[in-house]
Amino acid sequence: MVTLPPARKPVVLVADDDPSARDFVARVLSDHGIVVETVEDGQKALTRALTGSVDLVLLDVVMPDLGGMECCRLLKSGTREGFLPVILLTVRNDTESRIEGLRIGADDYVGKPFDERELVERVGGLLRIKHMHDELIDAKTKLEQLAINDELTGLYNYRYLHTRLTDEFRRAERYNLALGCVMVDVDRFKQVNDSFGHDAGDSVLRQVAKRMLTCVRTVDMVARYGGEEFVVLLPHTAAPGAVRAAERIRIAVSEKPIDVGKASCNVTVSAGVAVWPAPTITSRDNLLKAADRALYRAKAEGRNRTYAANFR
Fold it and tell me: How is domain 11-145 classified at the CATH fold level?
């Protein structure tokens, strides 16, 4: 039995134009807990493997239309993401043939007639390597996400916000492009936590984040600034457009209650808008501070409103 940690059983694709050899390999591997798919030529193997969800490919070297060597070369040529192990099956057991197969990227070589135990061990060994490779890729992806994303809301985090703000402000200065910045804060958020609990507060933040994302373009960036505060960067957006974006967010958040477990609560946000170019904004920090001051003014004027800073 080939034992692997993943929840799903490993899938092995067997390509061989000899039905008896194909069926033998399929039976042996199936008996060891592996899901086996079979095809009779290299072209079908290539097509199936490139659709994904295949963990290993067994290729007979000599097949009609597209042989195992060429199929292996195409699979290993970079047309597919990730690591896909390939084992070549052949009656040619001379050293030169093996070297040729390994040179084009094959991960192993099994000679015919098959020894059942050897076949199972070679397949199992490569499946374990494949699993470890996939785990490393998943771990790397998660670390990359943690480096730039807020864990609670999935939005960009404070650190990435400042990186992106630096880049966008430099671009705006260089090409004399407008850059809008909106600071958004959930009104009376402490009351949500006090009335419904911190889990409910987390749920509110996640829902506010989702609603904000529906109001912006793909070129815009929404980040969690900290606590219940968010920042939206709006490249190529002058004052009127920035105010409209802030109002879309404000309305989207408040138009319907947010579920917090067995109850629901009405949530509103206040927004402060600042835009470059402006006489008082000479740096990215000035832009952020101007939006923050505008947000403070929106709060002071009664909350659930948008206040535009530097062009009133």
Answer: Rossmann fold (3.40.50)
Q: What is the rounded distance in angstroms from the CA atom of residue 58 to the CA atom of residue 28?
A: 13
Report d(CA 101, CA 104) in Å as an integer: 6
Check whether 312 has a pLDDT greater than 50.
no
Spatial contact of 303 and 188, defined as CB atoms under 8 Å apart: yes
pTM flag (> 0.90) = no
Six token digits for residue 60: 């007979």
* 228 among known catalytic residues: yes
- Using CA atoms, how far residue 23 sits from 67, 116, 204, 246, in Å, is 19, 13, 56, 64
Longest CA–CA span in the chain (Å) reads: 85
Which among 11-15, 71-75, 259-263 has the top mean pLDDT?
Answer: 11-15
pLDDT at 246: 98
Q: How many CB atoms lie within 10 A of CB 145?
A: 13
Is there a contact between 187 and 270 (Cβ–Cβ < 8 Å)? Answer: yes
Sequence ranges of the domains in the chain: 11-145, 158-308
Distance between CA 286 and CA 114 in Å, rounded? 72
Catalytic residue among 228, 229, 247, 255: 228
Alpha helix (H) residue ranges in 94-197: 95-103, 116-148, 158-175, 189-196
The yes-or-no verdict on residue 78 having pLDDT over 70 is no
Encoded amino acid at 35, one letter: V
In tens, the pLDDT along 193-206 reads: 999 999 999 999 99
Q: And the tokens for 11?
A: 């899938």
Fold of 158-308: Alpha-Beta Plaits (3.30.70)
More confident call, 220 vs 96: 220
Closest CA to 152 of 105, 108, 186, 199: 199
